[in-house]
Design brief:
Chain A is mainly α. Helices cover about 35% and strands about 5% of the residues of chain A. Chain A contains three helices and two strands; from the N terminus they run αααββ. The chains are: A mainly alpha, B alpha/beta.
């Protein structure tokens, strides 16, 4: 089953990915092809099998909440695409 | 020259770190136009670190990595040195801190000659998905070096650095190590701190060394392994001296051969080389037996659901706000974000973000992501059972020899199959190593050795013994 144009646009929107018409068509083709290869999993009996989220058996790692040195403002702003005094400059969020 | 050979020369003052570093920098100048393994060469920094290392050596304050030139995959943060992940998104990103592994190597006196090329955000099996340029295999420049740590593997093979670090999410250290005929270890998940490693798939990612032999691999592990409170998934377990297990004696060790890894579509040359390597191990006294891991055939699907799902979450941070590329000239905040991600990411990264977003989206989560996590449990259990009978398992690292540049780049499913032998090991969180096992028409073939969690010593011991009995790892490409 090939993904529809609407489905691809919906996924792109969820992922906040701008996508050209050409990319939509390619994604329909390639994602459908990949998803088809995932069908094999449906045949595996996983009743009563718990999911594995990660392979270490560690649980809830805790540590003391100690104050410590952080990065300086200059360090963090050094990579900003746009800055304004001591802040990141962004497009208006509210219109 | 290996780390241990260079260390001896440095200690005996037959050579200085500055001289050694200049040899690597000259070699980089000479071969880089052909190989393309390095995104950023850090000549000035390297020479400064080498001068400091020479002072330490003069004071007798030496450890095995002091003054040795290395290259770091460009997915690990280096303070003051741009860290691009071979992506347009991070082309000008200069981290304000060092990754834990870089911090440890610096303390050990590393000389960093540069940052290694890779598939963008470590997604790929050929290094063709670098946003800057592809890396070429030093054994045949028309072929890929594997990936995603293709720059790291090619640089070791081409003599541009004495050792390198890579990262491995589904085979990204071992598969390129196999393709370039070098030694590459993916440690157990949690063995090495991931602090400062740009995240791809957080339940699978692990950092490890690419070196010229197993002894070097052990020496690097001695420095980078261990717990780090800044990575809550790093394991709080004792780190052994990994050189102690390199005895050369594997008599009586039980090695299993999982039949499912000799898959349909595997090249006959690869099968022949690996079977010969297994006979060699048997001749050295290992006890060989067959084992079946039937869920192996589901590993590819499990991996390509879990890894892209985690990636889609991890890469949500690249929104052009605080660092990295920002698209200029869009009308609104949302438009800026959409276009930043559209033009900042390459095709494979976008493909995986879309795939992961789909697998996690409402209505599909149970059918894809949860199902994959359950089959992940079955794959783990199967390995657990195998390790009740065997000390280690041996397989090919990849089903084929290095393929041609351009051959698979537009066919994601074919490209994904290059990792079919390595990704089950990440799914189960096991340690695995690839070592040179032979050649077919002068193209390298790697053998993978796998063991249970935190049994790096077992695989290093077997791999080292094999290298004592063979000299595949000593062959160098002509460039």
């Amino acid at each position: 089953m090939k993904l529809s144009r609407e489905e691809v646009l919906h996924i792109a929107r969820l992922a906040r990915l701008g996508i050209s018409d050409e990319e939509v068509e390619r994604a329909r083709e390639q994602l459908s092809n990949i998803l088809e290869n995932f069908e094999v999993l449906q045949s595996v009996d996983t009743d009563d099998v718990p999911p594995t989220a990660q392979s270490l058996t560690l649980q809830n790692v805790l540590r003391e909440d100690k104050p410590c040195a952080s990065f300086t403002r200059e360090d963090i702003l050094a990579n900003a695409p746009q800055e304004d005094e001591d802040s990141f400059r962004v497009r208006a969020v509210l219109e | 020259m290996t780390i241990h050979e260079a260390h001896k020369l440095l200690e005996e003052k037959q050579v200085s770190s500055v001289e050694l570093t200049k040899v690597c920098l000259d070699r980089i100048q000479q071969v880089e136009p052909k190989v393309g393994a390095i995104v950023t060469v850090t000549e000035e920094l390297a020479l400064e670190q080498a001068r400091k290392a020479d002072e330490l050596i003069a004071d007798g304050d030496v450890n095995p990595l002091t003054g040795i030139p290395a290259l770091i995959k460009d997915v690990m943060c280096t303070r003051g040195v741009r860290t691009t992940c071979s992506s347009k998104m991070l082309e000008n990103f200069v981290p304000p801190y060092d990754a834990a592994v870089v911090e440890k190597l610096n303390e050990a006196g590393m000389v960093m000659v540069g940052k290694a090329n890779m598939d963008e955000f470590a997604m790929g099996s050929s290094t063709e998905h670098s946003a800057f340029f592809p890396t070429h295999n030093p054994w045949d420049l028309s072929r890929v070096p594997g990936g995603s740590s293709g720059g790291s593997a090619a640089a070791v093979a081409a003599g541009e650095a004495i050792y390198t670090l890579g990262s491995d999410t589904g085979g990204s250290i071992r598969q390129p190590a196999g393709f370039c005929s070098v030694t590459g270890l993916k440690p157990t998940y949690g063995r090495v701190s991931r602090y400062g490693l740009v995240a791809f798939a957080s339940s699978l990612d692990q950092i490890g060394p690419l070196t010229q032999d197993v002894t070097d691999c052990a020496l690097v592990m001695n420095v980078i392994a261990g717990h780090d409170s800044r990575d809550s998934t790093s394991a709080p377990y004792h780190v052994p001296d990994y050189t102690q297990c390199l005895t050369g004696d594997i008599k009586g060790m039980k090695i299993g051969i999982p039949k499912e890894y000799f898959v349909e579509g595997m090249q006959s040359e690869v099968e022949a080389v690996i079977k010969a390597a297994i006979s060699k191990l048997e001749g050295m006294g290992a006890v060989i037996g067959e084992v079946s891991l039937p869920h192996t055939r589901h590993a590819l699907a499990v991996y390509y659901i879990i890894a892209p799902s985690e990636a889609s979450a991890n890469l949500a941070r690249y929104d052009g706000t605080k660092y990295g590329f920002r698209y200029q000239g869009a009308d609104t905040m949302w438009d800026t974000m959409d276009k930043t991600r559209q033009y900042g990411f390459g095709a494979e990264v976008k493909r995986r973000i879309m795939l992961g977003t789909y697998a996690l989206s409402a209505g599909y989560y149970d059918a894809y992501y949860l199902k994959a996590q359950k089959v992940r449990t079955l794959i783990r259990r199967e390995f657990d059972e195998a390790f009740e009978k065997f000390d280690a398992l041996v397989t090919p690292t990849s089903p084929t020899v290095p393929f041609k540049i351009g051959e698979k780049v537009d066919d994601p499913v074919q490209m994904y199959l290059a990792d079919v032998c390595t990704l089950p090991i990440n799914i189960a969180g096991l340690p695995g190593i690839s070592i040179p096992a032979g050649f077919a028409d002068n193209l390298p073939i790697g053998m993978q050795i796998i063991s249970k969690p935190f049994a790096e010593e077992t695989i290093l011991k077997i791999a080292h013994a094999y290298q004592q009995a063979t000299d595949w790892h000593k062959r160098k490409p002509e460039l």
